[in-house]
Amino acid sequence: xxxxxxxxxxxxxxxxxxxxxxxxxxxxxxxxxxxxxxxxxxxxxxxxxxxxxxxxxxxxxxxxxxxxxxxxxxxxxxxxxxxxxxxxxxxxxxxxxxxxxxxxxxxxxxxxxxxxxxxxxxxxxxxxxxxxxxxxxxxxxxxxxxxxxxxxxxxxxxxxxxxxxxxxxxxxxxxxxxxxxxxxxxxxxxxxxxxxxxxxxxxxxxxxxxxxxxxxxxxxxxxxxxxxxxxxxxxxxxxxxxxxxxxxxxxxxxxxxxxxxxxxxxxxxxxxxxxxxxxxxxxxxxxxxxxxxxxxxxxxxxxxxxxxxxxxxxxxxxxxxxxxxxxxxxxxxxxxxxxxxxxxxxxxxxxxxxxxxxxxxxxxxxxxxxxxxxxxxxxxxxxxxxxxxxxxxxxxxxxxxxxxxxxxxxxxxxxxxxxxxxxxxxxxxxxxxxxxxxxxxxxxxxxxxxxxxxxxxxxxxxxxxxxxxxxxxxxxxxxxxxxxxxxxxxxxxxxxxxxxxxxxxxxxxxxx
Length: 512
Description:
Layout: H1 4-43, H2 49-52, H3 58-61, E1 65-66, E2 74-75, H4 80-103, H5 109-112, H6 115-131, E3 133-149, E4 155-171, E5 174-192, E6 195-208, E7 225-228, H7 245-257, E8 262-268, H8 279-295, E9 298-305, H9 315-329, E10 338-342, H10 348-351, H11 353-370, E11 376-380, E12 396-400, H12 407-417, E13 423-428, H13 444-461, E14 465-467, H14 478-481, H15 485-491
Parallel strand pairs: 1-3, 2-3, 7-8, 7-14, 8-9, 10-11, 11-12, 12-13
Antiparallel strand pairs: 3-4, 4-5, 5-6
Helix pairs in contact: 7-8, 9-11
């Protein structure tokens, strides 16, 4: 007879042995899984930011235009995925370098530069820290050409020609120098830890950037008789959820019947998707252009509405945004011209005049490189700044809301500064609001008189124009003029047609 105590001990030993063996197998399985995951990570080009704790998100922060030279290379053949990995890692390295020089911080440099290469980056950062200097820079274009790809797939030698690089150097927070350079680089990249690090980055050639771009001329500019347009119910939200092409087309017919031939519309940067332009918004813009062509009026799209950053880190994203819109519609028959931005000079004080002008200049260059047919302009808020970038734009556009008696002198001053280009009055008008917030000075009758006098001046001097605006509005977003009622209420009553659809006396003078 077996002793019950001994049987119980034997059973417990077997159970314990089974648990230990199962635990051993489980631990081994976990180790094998982790090792295989790491192996897979370092051999599939996975996002290293998940494991190396870097914070580069190139798709959201840095997208310069990259054009690879396709003439083959010495050494091992390369597939498309490898080329994409090289491009991603190479551009990430540039971005990290820019951020390091801007913040004088080593963060991320170890992940994108080999030990030897990062010494140069660190030495520049250390020197700049000592001198209280920082560098704000970005690149606009890269033209890499792979010269050699090693047989073991671990080394790349490439030449990056005609790199367009914009930079500003500051000392004690004061601007020292601003420059745009065109440079050639020789680059060696090594495959380490499953991605490409820069081993050498040597600048071999520097040339000044030619900022003057060929003119895009249009015979239609001189004949502009137009108006800035929003639908009555959706001012500043023309392409939103309440978009109605039937209403817009009826308005276009009103504009056409009023002897006008051009409208100016506004493309909000964020609403259109920023760098990832929303295809639904593009479709709405296409409907607007198609309707304009059908009715027989031209369109001047104004880009980057409600955008006010201008930061160098944003430039390549801004460029991809403009590139998508302009390339999509550059051949549309309704397009008359491109307006880079509405009243950017209002941002001079908050964002820096030099920074805003540089941003505008590089966008002009980009848009003209895409669309060589249509003219480009900037909608300056006043006559004083209208001649800025006069050599870059194809015609001058400025806004005027002053007394009509002073208009001719303001116009003549611009003409004196820019005698060889057409000058378009891009916005003008007068509010008919008369109420508690402005009881004296405005009325529908005075608005009509203002437009009568302005049309006489514009006709006598043969000045192209776009007035503000077709309709009175019930609501004005606070982003436009703020919340102060003495600013908001007059802004609602600039239209030639009131909010009930009735033509105001000024409508008789909507055109020449």
